[in-house]
Amino acid sequence: MLNPSTFKFLKDLHKHNDREWFEKNKGRYEVAKEDFHQFTEKVLTELSKVDKRLAGLEVKNCVYRIYRDVRFSKDKTPYKTSFSASVNEGGRKSDNAGFYFQIDPVSDWGCIIAGGKWMPDAPKLKAIRQEIEYHKDEFKKIRGGKGFKKWFGALEDQKLKSAPKGYDKNDPDIELYKYTSYIVSFGLEEKDYYSKTILKKFTDSYKAMLPLLDFLNRADA
Known about the structure:
Order of helices and strands: HHHEEEHHHHEH
Oligomer: single chain
Structural class: alpha+beta
């Protein structure tokens, strides 16, 4: 469970996203960061019981910095208003399909559990499409799985408007190949993070997501 003060800090940061305020509230930030790190440690412990490949993964290799890279962004606010982490064998720097979670009480994305392969480069996207083409029944079974549909419903609708190069627009399965990202997500509320059931939500959603992650990573192997 997370402390309500962690969410309060992020809400206040959203209102006062500047270096002067942040420096004055650096102590609050350190407390909130530690709270999120401890929560992430618990998540890693539980997910490692489901997937032994995650054993030994350290929090520091999963969590993202709160400091924004504003060099190429029109938005020059210096800090993210969220805490987030990416969980897979290589941590946040890995290019594998993985499990992601974020707490953000103010943005459109909000508090989410998500995962998959986001915006792969052209060779990786081609490999995923080929894997789906060669194993369509398996991929459809993953998408139609009871746990998958319960938690995520469907893949996120990030698609091309027309058939990708090399694919027939009249192919009955053409929609499977139009995706530019193969990701899923599930929204949570702030109150969920104060509940004793929050870790179970993480483990159950990870179990539902794992067949998709394994499929995507197999395509990229």
